[in-house]
Write a structure and sequence with these properties.
alpha/beta; 5-stranded parallel β-sheet; two-stranded antiparallel sheet
C-alpha cells in the first residue's frame, strides 16, 4: 500500500501565491471531503493550486489529464493479460479512492459524458466506486477527495458538464491575478527582475483585452513564465516574446502584428 501511494506524494512545497481566500475555503471543503470544481482560463494556476493544497494537507495527489478518447475503464481500471493469465489493474480513480488520495481530473469537460458519469457515486453521500467488471464495490477511504477543473471559456452544448454532475461539487473561480501579484509570480518563477516581469504582464493584459475580438484565449500566466525563462537565459526579450507569447496563440497576420506591436511597446 505504501509503495503504491507514496509515488503520488508531493515532497517539496510548490510555489503558489495566494490571491484571495481560496486556500482557506479549500481547506474547509476538504475537512468535510466536499468534491471541488476549479473554474478558470487555461494557465491561470488551477493545477498549481491543487498541487499546493495536496502538499499543505500532506495528501497524495493523482492527476488525470482528461481527453475525448478517455474511457471509464481508463479511470476505474481493467483486466490485463500477462504471462500468468488475467489480472486486474486499478485505474487512477480507483487507486485514489482505495488508498485515500486527492484525485484531480484536469479539464474534465474534454472527457465524454458517459465517462464522467462514473464519478457520480463518489461525489454524494455514498462515496463508493463500483468496479462492475470486477464485481467489487470500493468504499472511498476517509481521506479521499475528488477535484475537477475546466475552462468555462470553452463551454459549448457539446462540451459541458451535466447539471447532475455540476451540482455535486463546490466551486472556486480562478482568473489571472492582478498586475502586482502576477508580476511577483513571474519574477519568482523565472528569476527575471520585477521590472521585466511587469512588462511581460502588461503585454499579457493587452492581449487579454483582445479575447473575443480576434483571439480565442489571452496570454496566460504560464506563457509569461515561459517568456521570462527564456529572457533569464539571455534571449533577447522581443524574440522571447514572439516565440512564447505571440506565435503560439494566433496564426492571423493582423493579430500577430498587433501583438508584436504590444511587445515592441514595452521592449
Amino acid at each position: 500500500m505504501n509503495d503504491m501511494i507514496s509515488q503520488y506524494r508531493i515532497e517539496q512545497e510548490p510555489y503558489y501565491r495566494t490571491v484571495a481566500d481560496e486556500v482557506d475555503l479549500y481547506e474547509a471543503a476538504y475537512s468535510v471531503r466536499m468534491p471541488m470544481m476549479l473554474k478558470g482560463p487555461t494557465g491561470c494556476g488551477k493545477t498549481r493550486f491543487v498541487e499546493y493544497m495536496a502538499w499543505k494537507l500532506s495528501k497524495p495527489l493523482i492527476t488525470v489529464a482528461c481527453n475525448e478518447d478517455m474511457t471509464a475503464s481508463d479511470l476505474v481500471g481493467r483486466f490485463l493479460l500477462d504471462a500468468n493469465g488475467t489480472r486486474w489493474q486499478d485505474g487512477p480513480l480507483a487507486i485514489a479512492a482505495r488508498f485515500g488520495a486527492i484525485c484531480y481530473l484536469d479539464e474534465v469537460v474534454e472527457a465524454r459524458q458517459d465517462t464522467t458519469v462514473v464519478i457520480h457515486p463518489l461525489t454524494d453521500n455514498r462515496r463508493v466506486l463500483p468496479l462492475e467488471k470486477k464485481g467489487e464495490l470500493i468504499h472511498a477511504h476517509p481521506d479521499f477527495q475528488l477535484v475537477i477543473s475546466y475552462n468555462p471559456g470553452y463551454q459549448s452544448l457539446m462540451k459541458d458538464l451535466k447539471q447532475s454532475t455540476k451540482q455535486r461539487f463546490g466551486a472556486l473561480d480562478f482568473n489571472y491575478p492582478d498586475h502586482a501579484i502576477e508580476t511577483e509570480i513571474v519574477s519568482h518563477e523565472t528569476g527575471v527582475t520585477p521590472e521585466v516581469a511587469s512588462k511581460l504582464v502588461s503585454i499579457a493584459e493587452r492581449a487579454r483585452n483582445l479575447k473575443g475580438h480576434g483571439l480565442d484565449e489571452g496570454i496566460s500566466t504560464r506563457m509569461l513564465i515561459y517568456a521570462g525563462s527564456l529572457i533569464a537565459t539571455g534571449v533577447d526579450p522581443v524574440k522571447a516574446c514572439r516565440v512564447t507569447l505571440v506565435r503560439p496563440i494566433t496564426d492571423d497576420p493582423d493579430m500577430r502584428d498587433a501583438l508584436d506591436a504590444a511587445v515592441n511597446t514595452f521592449f
